[in-house]
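Reply to dn_fold:

You asked what the input looked like. This is it:
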Amino acid sequence: MKYSVAIDIGGTNTRVALADEELNIIERKQFATDSENPDVTLGKIAEVIKSFDCDIVGAGMSCPGPLDLINGKILTPPNLKGQWHNLKVAEELSKLINKPVYLENDANLAGLAEAVVGEGKDYNYVQFFTVSTGLGAGFVINKEIYHGAHGFGNEVANCVMMKDGPSHGSIIPGGIEAISSGTAITSRAVKAGLDVKHAGEVNDLAKAGNEVAKQIMDDAKEYLANFIGVVYGYADPEIVILGGSVALKIDGFVEEVEALAKERVYEIMKPYVKVRKSTLNEDSGLIGAAYLAFSKAE
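and this is what came back:
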């Protein structure tokens, strides 16, 4: 039996998992990420991998973006600092474990998992969006991630959908992440004077008749549907899968977005618009990373 390693380096914690050829997570470990010194974190990852003591074909790894996926390099993520910036992280870890390491962003890996074992497993053209703290995406064609010319394929957060629209963090005003992500929904509500802590509470207020909350939720769904309509017109996926806390925890969100998206395409295309909720859990990124390592080994 061969195995692969899945690694998720986050700004706060790092997860390392061992997976078998059927993509079952056999063993996992988690520890705090040293956000200033990559040597500490990479050293711990290498120790964990060596402790697995089995035939490992390689490792798939996700890190906070932006990333240079062509060269396996971290660029300038806000939650990793110091020597992390411009680090060829895949190459550095590969030296420590003497196995190939493949870098991807977390949304790409979650999309890959969806295409291999999730709602998209029976399709060749799978579009994935995670609607959570941020809004990320991944497009998978025939079980392979689409990167584009420079590795920035599906870096959609800054795609502007609303003139003079809201913003948060480094997102361009009116960018889709600043309208439809969970953070954006909550931020807009707080700025409007609502006492809420997460997007679910904004949705509860909307259902109770609060007009401000209703407008914020309507915007989140409408502009995401607009964006999905653009995706169908441009890329023609067979299925769009929504993951993340907003899509998974807010009742009716995915169904409403699908209905709206069907109104954003040509009549002849409406039967092909298929928006579904992810059935994978928070391990989707790890599953995608494990599959990536196996597929590259083959």
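The chain has a mean pLDDT of 95.
Hope that clears it up.
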